[in-house]
Design brief:
Elements (H helix, E strand, L loop, with lengths): L12 H10 L6 E5 L8 H11 L6 E5 L1 H11 L3 H15 L13 H6 L9 H10 L12 E7 L4 E5 L4 H8 L9 E3 L2 E5 L8 H6 L4 E5 L14 H22 L6 E4 L16 H18 L20 H24 L1
Parallel strand pairs: 1-2, 1-7, 2-3, 7-8
Antiparallel strand pairs: 3-4, 3-6, 5-6
Helix pairs in contact: 2-4, 2-10, 3-4, 9-11
Length: 338
Protein backbone atom coordinates (compact mmCIF):
# COMPACT_ATOMS: atom_id res chain seq x y z
CA UNK A 1 0.00 0.00 0.00
CA UNK A 2 1.21 3.47 -0.80
CA UNK A 3 1.85 5.92 1.99
CA UNK A 4 -1.02 8.28 2.77
CA UNK A 5 1.41 11.18 2.46
CA UNK A 6 1.33 10.68 -1.28
CA UNK A 7 -2.30 11.76 -1.23
CA UNK A 8 -1.75 14.86 0.88
CA UNK A 9 -3.93 17.61 -0.63
CA UNK A 10 -0.99 20.01 -0.40
CA UNK A 11 0.98 18.00 -2.96
CA UNK A 12 0.65 18.57 -6.66
CA UNK A 13 -0.15 15.67 -9.02
CA UNK A 14 3.44 15.88 -10.21
CA UNK A 15 4.67 15.48 -6.62
CA UNK A 16 2.48 12.42 -6.07
CA UNK A 17 3.68 10.82 -9.28
CA UNK A 18 7.29 11.50 -8.32
CA UNK A 19 6.72 9.75 -5.01
CA UNK A 20 5.06 6.74 -6.61
CA UNK A 21 7.85 6.44 -9.17
CA UNK A 22 10.45 6.52 -6.39
CA UNK A 23 9.11 3.22 -5.03
CA UNK A 24 10.41 1.48 -8.12
CA UNK A 25 13.81 3.15 -8.34
CA UNK A 26 17.09 1.95 -6.83
CA UNK A 27 17.71 3.31 -3.35
CA UNK A 28 19.48 6.67 -3.34
CA UNK A 29 20.99 8.46 -0.39
CA UNK A 30 20.77 12.19 0.32
CA UNK A 31 22.50 14.26 2.97
CA UNK A 32 20.23 17.13 4.08
CA UNK A 33 22.01 19.97 5.90
CA UNK A 34 20.08 22.41 8.09
CA UNK A 35 20.97 26.00 8.86
CA UNK A 36 22.21 27.12 12.25
CA UNK A 37 24.89 29.82 12.03
CA UNK A 38 27.81 29.31 14.40
CA UNK A 39 26.42 25.91 15.40
CA UNK A 40 27.32 24.65 11.92
CA UNK A 41 30.50 23.15 13.39
CA UNK A 42 28.25 20.34 14.61
CA UNK A 43 27.92 19.13 11.02
CA UNK A 44 31.68 18.59 10.77
CA UNK A 45 31.46 15.97 13.52
CA UNK A 46 28.43 14.36 11.91
CA UNK A 47 30.23 14.12 8.56
CA UNK A 48 33.26 12.54 10.18
CA UNK A 49 31.04 9.83 11.67
CA UNK A 50 29.28 9.25 8.35
CA UNK A 51 32.55 8.94 6.43
CA UNK A 52 33.96 6.50 8.98
CA UNK A 53 30.76 4.44 8.67
CA UNK A 54 31.25 4.27 4.90
CA UNK A 55 28.07 6.17 4.07
CA UNK A 56 28.33 8.23 0.88
CA UNK A 57 25.49 10.36 -0.49
CA UNK A 58 24.25 10.35 -4.07
CA UNK A 59 23.41 14.04 -3.71
CA UNK A 60 23.41 16.79 -1.08
CA UNK A 61 20.98 19.58 -0.17
CA UNK A 62 22.00 22.51 2.01
CA UNK A 63 20.47 25.54 3.71
CA UNK A 64 22.28 28.58 5.15
CA UNK A 65 25.45 27.46 6.98
CA UNK A 66 24.49 23.93 5.96
CA UNK A 67 24.82 25.05 2.35
CA UNK A 68 28.42 26.07 3.02
CA UNK A 69 29.27 22.80 4.78
CA UNK A 70 27.38 20.77 2.19
CA UNK A 71 29.18 22.40 -0.73
CA UNK A 72 32.59 21.89 0.86
CA UNK A 73 31.84 18.20 1.43
CA UNK A 74 30.36 17.76 -2.05
CA UNK A 75 33.69 18.93 -3.44
CA UNK A 76 35.61 16.35 -1.41
CA UNK A 77 33.22 13.68 -0.05
CA UNK A 78 35.86 11.87 1.96
CA UNK A 79 38.19 12.20 4.94
CA UNK A 80 40.10 14.99 3.21
CA UNK A 81 36.90 16.97 2.81
CA UNK A 82 36.04 16.55 6.48
CA UNK A 83 39.57 17.63 7.40
CA UNK A 84 39.21 20.73 5.22
CA UNK A 85 35.95 21.64 6.94
CA UNK A 86 37.56 21.03 10.31
CA UNK A 87 40.34 23.43 9.37
CA UNK A 88 37.84 26.10 8.30
CA UNK A 89 35.88 25.85 11.53
CA UNK A 90 39.14 25.75 13.49
CA UNK A 91 40.11 29.06 11.91
CA UNK A 92 36.76 30.52 12.90
CA UNK A 93 37.19 29.21 16.45
CA UNK A 94 40.48 31.09 16.60
CA UNK A 95 38.90 34.26 15.21
CA UNK A 96 40.80 34.07 11.92
CA UNK A 97 38.85 35.59 10.32
CA UNK A 98 36.41 37.23 12.70
CA UNK A 99 33.11 36.88 10.83
CA UNK A 100 31.06 38.89 13.30
CA UNK A 101 33.26 41.35 15.21
CA UNK A 102 31.96 42.18 18.68
CA UNK A 103 31.02 45.76 19.46
CA UNK A 104 30.88 47.68 22.72
CA UNK A 105 27.42 48.97 21.78
CA UNK A 106 24.55 47.01 23.34
CA UNK A 107 22.57 44.67 21.13
CA UNK A 108 19.41 46.78 21.29
CA UNK A 109 21.32 49.87 20.15
CA UNK A 110 22.95 47.97 17.28
CA UNK A 111 19.59 46.70 16.06
CA UNK A 112 18.13 50.21 16.17
CA UNK A 113 20.82 51.89 14.10
CA UNK A 114 20.36 52.63 10.41
CA UNK A 115 21.45 50.12 7.83
CA UNK A 116 20.35 46.68 6.68
CA UNK A 117 22.69 44.45 8.68
CA UNK A 118 25.13 44.23 11.55
CA UNK A 119 28.07 42.70 9.68
CA UNK A 120 29.96 42.88 6.39
CA UNK A 121 29.42 39.68 4.37
CA UNK A 122 32.63 40.15 2.37
CA UNK A 123 34.65 38.58 5.19
CA UNK A 124 32.70 35.32 4.79
CA UNK A 125 32.80 35.53 1.00
CA UNK A 126 36.58 35.88 1.02
CA UNK A 127 36.93 32.90 3.36
CA UNK A 128 34.86 30.77 0.98
CA UNK A 129 36.84 31.85 -2.05
CA UNK A 130 40.04 31.00 -0.20
CA UNK A 131 39.03 27.66 1.31
CA UNK A 132 36.60 25.92 -1.04
CA UNK A 133 38.27 23.30 -3.22
CA UNK A 134 36.22 24.29 -6.32
CA UNK A 135 34.42 27.43 -7.47
CA UNK A 136 31.37 26.09 -9.36
CA UNK A 137 28.54 23.62 -8.92
CA UNK A 138 29.68 21.79 -12.04
CA UNK A 139 33.11 21.06 -10.51
CA UNK A 140 31.70 19.32 -7.42
CA UNK A 141 32.27 15.59 -7.01
CA UNK A 142 28.68 14.98 -5.83
CA UNK A 143 25.54 16.78 -7.10
CA UNK A 144 24.67 19.60 -4.72
CA UNK A 145 21.95 22.23 -4.46
CA UNK A 146 21.29 24.97 -1.92
CA UNK A 147 18.28 27.10 -1.13
CA UNK A 148 17.73 30.81 -0.57
CA UNK A 149 14.58 32.86 -0.09
CA UNK A 150 13.54 35.11 -2.99
CA UNK A 151 12.40 38.33 -1.31
CA UNK A 152 10.17 39.48 -4.19
CA UNK A 153 8.24 36.23 -4.62
CA UNK A 154 8.43 34.93 -1.01
CA UNK A 155 9.43 31.55 -2.43
CA UNK A 156 12.33 29.16 -2.17
CA UNK A 157 14.94 29.44 -4.89
CA UNK A 158 17.28 26.52 -5.49
CA UNK A 159 20.77 26.99 -6.89
CA UNK A 160 22.24 24.04 -8.79
CA UNK A 161 24.46 25.56 -11.48
CA UNK A 162 27.07 28.28 -11.90
CA UNK A 163 29.44 29.96 -9.42
CA UNK A 164 29.33 28.58 -5.88
CA UNK A 165 30.18 31.52 -3.67
CA UNK A 166 27.32 33.88 -4.72
CA UNK A 167 24.79 31.08 -4.22
CA UNK A 168 26.19 30.19 -0.80
CA UNK A 169 26.18 33.83 0.27
CA UNK A 170 22.52 34.08 -0.78
CA UNK A 171 21.60 30.98 1.17
CA UNK A 172 23.41 32.24 4.29
CA UNK A 173 22.23 35.89 4.21
CA UNK A 174 20.68 35.80 7.69
CA UNK A 175 18.42 38.87 8.08
CA UNK A 176 19.78 41.58 10.36
CA UNK A 177 23.16 39.82 10.58
CA UNK A 178 24.08 39.96 6.86
CA UNK A 179 22.45 42.04 4.12
CA UNK A 180 20.37 40.49 1.36
CA UNK A 181 22.38 39.10 -1.55
CA UNK A 182 21.57 40.48 -5.00
CA UNK A 183 22.18 38.18 -7.96
CA UNK A 184 21.20 39.73 -11.26
CA UNK A 185 17.85 41.42 -10.78
CA UNK A 186 16.83 39.24 -7.83
CA UNK A 187 17.36 39.72 -4.11
CA UNK A 188 17.84 36.77 -1.76
CA UNK A 189 17.96 36.20 1.97
CA UNK A 190 18.70 33.18 4.15
CA UNK A 191 17.16 29.93 2.95
CA UNK A 192 16.11 29.09 6.50
CA UNK A 193 13.60 31.96 6.63
CA UNK A 194 10.93 29.73 5.12
CA UNK A 195 12.16 26.25 6.05
CA UNK A 196 15.25 24.80 7.72
CA UNK A 197 15.01 21.15 6.71
CA UNK A 198 14.22 20.17 3.12
CA UNK A 199 13.54 16.45 3.46
CA UNK A 200 10.56 16.60 1.11
CA UNK A 201 12.68 18.24 -1.57
CA UNK A 202 15.16 15.38 -1.23
CA UNK A 203 12.37 12.84 -1.75
CA UNK A 204 11.16 14.61 -4.87
CA UNK A 205 14.75 14.55 -6.11
CA UNK A 206 14.77 10.77 -5.84
CA UNK A 207 16.12 10.09 -2.34
CA UNK A 208 15.01 6.96 -0.51
CA UNK A 209 17.45 7.25 2.40
CA UNK A 210 17.83 10.64 4.08
CA UNK A 211 20.55 11.56 6.55
CA UNK A 212 19.49 14.79 8.24
CA UNK A 213 22.36 16.86 9.64
CA UNK A 214 20.44 19.20 11.92
CA UNK A 215 22.61 21.38 14.13
CA UNK A 216 20.44 21.31 17.25
CA UNK A 217 17.44 19.83 18.92
CA UNK A 218 13.78 20.80 18.73
CA UNK A 219 12.87 20.40 22.38
CA UNK A 220 10.36 22.87 23.77
CA UNK A 221 11.68 25.88 25.64
CA UNK A 222 9.69 25.59 28.87
CA UNK A 223 10.93 28.80 30.45
CA UNK A 224 8.26 30.84 32.20
CA UNK A 225 7.01 33.80 30.18
CA UNK A 226 7.76 36.84 32.34
CA UNK A 227 8.57 39.45 29.69
CA UNK A 228 7.55 40.18 26.09
CA UNK A 229 10.76 38.70 24.74
CA UNK A 230 10.01 35.35 26.42
CA UNK A 231 6.75 35.21 24.48
CA UNK A 232 8.56 35.99 21.23
CA UNK A 233 11.11 33.26 21.93
CA UNK A 234 8.35 30.74 22.61
CA UNK A 235 6.70 31.68 19.31
CA UNK A 236 9.99 31.14 17.50
CA UNK A 237 10.38 27.63 18.90
CA UNK A 238 6.79 26.73 18.07
CA UNK A 239 7.28 27.91 14.49
CA UNK A 240 10.52 25.97 14.22
CA UNK A 241 8.93 22.76 15.50
CA UNK A 242 5.98 23.15 13.16
CA UNK A 243 8.08 23.67 10.06
CA UNK A 244 10.24 20.65 10.86
CA UNK A 245 7.26 18.40 11.56
CA UNK A 246 5.39 19.64 8.51
CA UNK A 247 8.31 18.84 6.21
CA UNK A 248 8.78 15.37 7.67
CA UNK A 249 5.06 14.64 7.26
CA UNK A 250 5.63 14.87 3.53
CA UNK A 251 8.20 12.08 3.58
CA UNK A 252 6.50 8.80 2.58
CA UNK A 253 6.93 5.73 4.75
CA UNK A 254 9.03 3.91 2.17
CA UNK A 255 11.80 6.44 2.80
CA UNK A 256 14.23 5.97 5.67
CA UNK A 257 15.08 9.11 7.63
CA UNK A 258 18.16 9.12 9.86
CA UNK A 259 18.60 12.08 12.24
CA UNK A 260 22.26 12.52 13.12
CA UNK A 261 22.95 13.42 16.74
CA UNK A 262 24.33 16.81 17.77
CA UNK A 263 25.43 15.45 21.14
CA UNK A 264 24.89 18.64 23.12
CA UNK A 265 22.62 21.61 23.64
CA UNK A 266 24.96 24.62 23.53
CA UNK A 267 24.18 28.05 24.91
CA UNK A 268 26.18 30.31 22.66
CA UNK A 269 25.66 33.84 21.44
CA UNK A 270 24.98 33.95 17.73
CA UNK A 271 28.38 35.56 17.09
CA UNK A 272 30.46 33.25 19.29
CA UNK A 273 32.44 30.88 17.03
CA UNK A 274 35.05 30.05 19.66
CA UNK A 275 33.66 26.64 20.63
CA UNK A 276 33.50 25.08 17.17
CA UNK A 277 36.01 22.31 17.89
CA UNK A 278 34.03 21.21 20.95
CA UNK A 279 30.74 21.23 19.05
CA UNK A 280 32.24 19.07 16.31
CA UNK A 281 33.63 16.59 18.83
CA UNK A 282 30.32 16.25 20.68
CA UNK A 283 28.51 15.61 17.41
CA UNK A 284 31.11 13.13 16.19
CA UNK A 285 30.93 11.00 19.34
CA UNK A 286 27.12 11.04 19.48
CA UNK A 287 26.61 10.39 15.75
CA UNK A 288 29.24 7.64 15.69
CA UNK A 289 27.41 5.90 18.53
CA UNK A 290 24.08 6.34 16.73
CA UNK A 291 25.39 4.87 13.48
CA UNK A 292 27.11 2.02 15.34
CA UNK A 293 24.30 1.03 17.72
CA UNK A 294 21.14 2.68 16.45
CA UNK A 295 20.79 4.61 19.71
CA UNK A 296 22.05 8.16 20.28
CA UNK A 297 23.21 9.29 23.73
CA UNK A 298 21.19 11.93 25.51
CA UNK A 299 22.54 15.42 24.71
CA UNK A 300 24.69 17.03 27.36
CA UNK A 301 24.53 20.70 28.32
CA UNK A 302 27.33 21.63 25.95
CA UNK A 303 29.51 24.76 25.79
CA UNK A 304 28.22 28.25 26.55
CA UNK A 305 29.47 31.75 25.93
CA UNK A 306 31.52 32.69 28.98
CA UNK A 307 31.09 36.42 28.53
CA UNK A 308 27.30 36.43 28.38
CA UNK A 309 27.14 38.28 31.66
CA UNK A 310 23.66 37.27 32.72
CA UNK A 311 23.28 33.70 31.46
CA UNK A 312 19.53 34.11 31.47
CA UNK A 313 20.03 36.66 28.71
CA UNK A 314 21.21 33.94 26.33
CA UNK A 315 17.99 33.83 24.37
CA UNK A 316 17.91 37.58 23.88
CA UNK A 317 21.54 37.55 22.70
CA UNK A 318 21.42 34.52 20.41
CA UNK A 319 17.85 34.46 19.23
CA UNK A 320 16.81 38.10 19.12
CA UNK A 321 19.61 39.22 16.82
CA UNK A 322 19.51 36.33 14.40
CA UNK A 323 16.85 33.69 14.73
CA UNK A 324 13.77 35.70 15.64
CA UNK A 325 14.62 38.11 12.84
CA UNK A 326 13.66 35.25 10.53
CA UNK A 327 10.13 35.39 11.90
CA UNK A 328 9.86 39.11 11.22
CA UNK A 329 11.28 38.69 7.73
CA UNK A 330 8.90 35.80 7.03
CA UNK A 331 5.91 37.94 7.97
CA UNK A 332 7.16 40.79 5.78
CA UNK A 333 7.62 38.72 2.63
CA UNK A 334 4.37 36.86 3.27
CA UNK A 335 2.46 40.14 3.32
CA UNK A 336 4.24 41.20 0.13
CA UNK A 337 3.21 37.98 -1.61
CA UNK A 338 -0.48 38.36 -0.75
Amino acid sequence: MLSSELFDSRLTPRSRLAGIASRFRPRRTAFVFSGGGNLGAVQVGMLKALVEAGIRPDFILGCSVGAINGAAFAAEPNEDGVARLGRIWGRLSDGEPDLMPSRFVHVAAQMARKGEALHDPEVLAELLREELAVDSFEALDIPFSCVATDVASAEEHWFEHGPLVPALMASAALPAVYPAKRIGEREFIDGGVLREIHAHRAVLSGATDLYVLHVGHLNDRKAEVTRPFDAATRAYWLARQYRMADDLKRVPDWCRVHHLAAGCSPRLRFDDFSRGRELAQYAYEASAQLLRTGVAPLPVAGPFSKDNGDDDNFESEAVAEGLTSRLAESRRIFRRAQ
